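Researcher: Quick test of sequence recovery. Tokens follow.
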């Protein structure tokens, strides 16, 4: 959630009536979120019009406040547009196209790795004749993955290489030939002409457009040009490990109708994931992974225990036992940074905090080395007790001091948070 967005949601969460104003306010925030996620401007417009019609014509979800109900409708619509969960690749020649630097070559390596793990016979080749370094890059990747790289004598044209590669791939009875192509910094006629000829020559089973999620507002137009020239069968959105929220996914689905097949989440060979529409929908909206958070919360912490904790925080009666519970609770949720990202409203404020899992383990050990009495009443922990605790946990007195200081800080923060949000304002989506 952007900070502005979360504030207005918190404000609206309490209002029970759907007034024109509530709808307008929420949709205005959604609009800002979509634009911030780099969803194409026209796409935002048509999408919101549809949502608005639906919101005004439908009954509200009873379990939700009007604002949440509208947000949920938006979320449902987004997920619907983004399409099915996992799109399989058709066996055959897979052509990779896109601008230079978007991640074509890297993605071929990743996909070869993935397909090989699924026991397919995969081979790769490159038609990027103008940049020998790019061909070498793919060759290296293929060695790393352990799949054959088809190379041919120098001086062949891109189209000739493509033809020869396909001949060999057929002769060897492979399942997939992943074919790399040259990119340019901008769309140009020569590039498109070459790609059309390659397409004609190899009759690909898939033409995958590789797009950089960080590309911004011009990205849809570039994708459209490729789609009109070649007829794309899928999109791979790369660099989703960065700050990009992935609005391009929505744009290409809505405007071009082309499915998103995978997302790239890093530079390593394993960093390719299937496309999960619900996750991307949440990310585009900036709502955080609310649903899975709610599920996880229900799995790891019983309702009444959460209630006890909440009450204690409210009453300012928060001791080291509670801190231990919170630490364990958070640990059970999974990677901390991810968990914080899932907390709507809070994520914006905590973004700058760097979390250290090792430190958490140490903290846990230290609290476990305390007596019950010490945990409940940390004030009694004097120097000799600190020394005993440090020995018991295999740490040092300064580690113990750190934990005590963090406890005080946590107590203080909780009071502040309580004031800022009010407890029990965490939004819930029906499942
Ligand atoms: P190409 O010109 O389209 O073939 O692009 P490359 O495959 O050479 O990739 C360009 C740069 O983007 C390289 O530095 C890659 O490591 C990087 N890259 C590709 N995919 C990803 C991704 O999913 N995440 C991140 N962080 N970097 C990526
Ligand atoms: Mg390349």
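Model:
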């Amino acid at each position: 959630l952007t900070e502005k967005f979360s504030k207005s949601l918190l404000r609206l969460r309490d209002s029970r009536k759907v007034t024109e104003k509530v709808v307008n306010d929420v949709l205005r925030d959604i609009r800002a979120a979509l634009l911030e996620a780099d969803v194409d401007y026209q796409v935002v417009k048509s999408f919101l019009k549809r949502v608005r019609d639906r919101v005004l014509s439908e009954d509200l979800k009873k379990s939700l406040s009007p604002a949440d109900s509208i947000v949920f409708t938006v979320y449902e619509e987004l997920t619907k547009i983004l399409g099915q969960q996992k799109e399989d690749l058709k066996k055959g020649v897979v052509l990779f196209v896109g601008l230079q630097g978007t991640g074509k070559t890297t993605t071929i390596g990743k996909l070869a790795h993935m397909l090989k793990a699924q026991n397919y016979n995969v081979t790769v080749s490159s038609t990027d004749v103008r940049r020998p370094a790019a061909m070498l890059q793919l060759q290296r990747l293929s060695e790393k993955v352990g799949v054959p790289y088809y190379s041919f004598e120098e001086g062949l044209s891109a189209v000739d290489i493509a033809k020869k590669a396909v001949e060999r791939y057929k002769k060897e009875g492979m399942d997939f030939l992943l074919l790399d192509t040259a990119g340019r910094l901008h769309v140009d006629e020569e590039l498109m002409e070459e790609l059309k000829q390659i397409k004609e020559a190899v009759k690909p089973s898939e033409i995958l457009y590789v797009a950089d999620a960080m590309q911004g507002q011009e990205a849809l137009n570039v994708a459209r040009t490729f789609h009109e020239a070649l007829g794309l069968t899928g999109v791979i959105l790369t660099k989703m490990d960065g700050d990009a929220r992935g609005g391009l996914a929505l744009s290409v689905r809505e405007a071009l109708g082309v499915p998103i097949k995978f997302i790239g989440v890093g530079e390593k060979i394993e960093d390719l994931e299937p496309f999960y529409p619900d996750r991307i929908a949440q990310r585009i909206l900036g709502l955080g992974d609310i649903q899975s958070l709610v599920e996880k919360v229900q799995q790891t912490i019983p309702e009444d225990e959460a209630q006890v904790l909440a009450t204690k925080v409210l009453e300012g009666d928060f001791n080291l036992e509670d801190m231990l519970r919170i630490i364990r609770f958070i640990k059970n949720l999974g990677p901390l940074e991810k968990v914080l990202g899932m907390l709507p409203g809070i994520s914006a404020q905590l973004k700058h905090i760097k979390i250290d899992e090792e430190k958490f383990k140490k903290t846990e050990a230290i609290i476990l080395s305390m007596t019950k009495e010490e945990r409940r009443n940390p004030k009694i922990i004097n120097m000799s007790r600190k020394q005993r605790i440090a020995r018991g946990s295999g740490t040092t007195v300064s580690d113990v001091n750190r934990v005590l200081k963090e406890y005080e800080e946590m107590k203080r923060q909780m009071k502040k948070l309580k004031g800022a949000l009010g407890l029990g304002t965490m939004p819930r989506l029906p499942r």
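The chain has a mean pLDDT of 81.
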